Amino acid sequence: MPAQPMAETKQEKIWTRDFILICLANFCIFLGFQMTLPTLPLFVKELGGSDQLIGIIVGIFTFSALVMRPYAGHALESKGRQFVYMFGLLIFVVSVGSFALVSSIALLLLLRIVQGVGWGFSTTATGTIATDLIPPSRRGEGMGYFGLAGNLALAFGPSLGLALVGQMSFSSFFLICASAGLVALVLSSKIKYKKVEQSQHKTVALKFDIFEKTAIHPSLLLFFVTFTFGGIATFLPLHAAEQEVAGIEGYFLMYAVFLMISRTFAGKIYDQKGHLFVFLPGTVLIFGAMLLLAWLPNTTMMLIAASLYGLGFGMIQPALQAWAVEKAPGNRKGMANATFFSFFDLGVGMGAIIFGQIAFLFNYGVIYVVAAGSVLLSMLLYLYLVFIAVRRKQDVR
């Protein structure tokens, strides 16, 4: 009799060997990615590219990832987690390493498309693998901890990338970024992956099956939030330079620190009280951050904006991801994660491209006013969805 409670307690454990390995692998791949995030615009400028080209090069990456995610979602359920994850990591490593050979905008654009393919497969897989390894009753909390790996990479990646670019050539720098992905590839080979759950019914129209319908609402909310991220990741270093505001490295560090802080409690709030208690407070914080970045009078305000954005996004992202996968059938968890990250990519990509046009026509400050409007739209859409859900419950009664 005493053995049963012990088994149940063990089942609820989050920090298993495999969960630690997937977190470490996630840290490494995100480190390689985050190091390139603020430096690619500088590289495009060195190659003679304009603000419009910067937006397109950043955006095309997310669109190629977006196209691949549905295929990755299906492959996760048919080919297995390990194949999809390691395939994506390998493409990512090769493409980023090839940046070292780039001498033209056209070649960089092509390699960014290839990089997006690897990113689409690897990040769809890693979210699904983490979901497999986390007990369902602690999914919000577990996804928050899992997200800390990416947050740690964000804490060091952009600042480290900017520092290294100042000390070495872009060719050497991109090889270092690729090596971080290579470490992730080695770590991923040590994980014991969950066997895929076979569906009792064959999908008739597989080629039209590009999203999981139960994940649409949280994914759409995420789209309006990550739309703002396209403006930050792509143009904030240039905006700060134009405003003569120093310490852009500090922005990414402060953002990541507060992102990690929010991850330690936001997931638990979601598990206990639901998304209502994390989404609206989180979007209010992001809305305030966008207005501060539009103003950007000095370094202090930039760091305050970073802390607000970090707290807000750290509350929203794991809660929405847990919401996206919790109602999906067991054999559709991969597609639910694919849907979630497709909207994530679409938001970042659309933001980068549209903000590139805004920067060309107006100035960098207008980018963040438009971004604030996007956050406001997400809040209004959320209130509408909650209202509809309440009305349906009342009708059932």
From TrEMBL:
Keywords: Membrane, Transmembrane, Transmembrane helix, Transport
Residues annotated as domain Major facilitator superfamily (MFS) profile: 18-390
Chief localisation class: membrane
SUPFAM superfamilies found in the cross-reference section: MFS general substrate transporter
Name of the molecule in the record: MFS transporter
Subcellular location: Cell membrane
Originating organism: Virgibacillus dokdonensis
An example Gene Ontology CC term for this record: plasma membrane
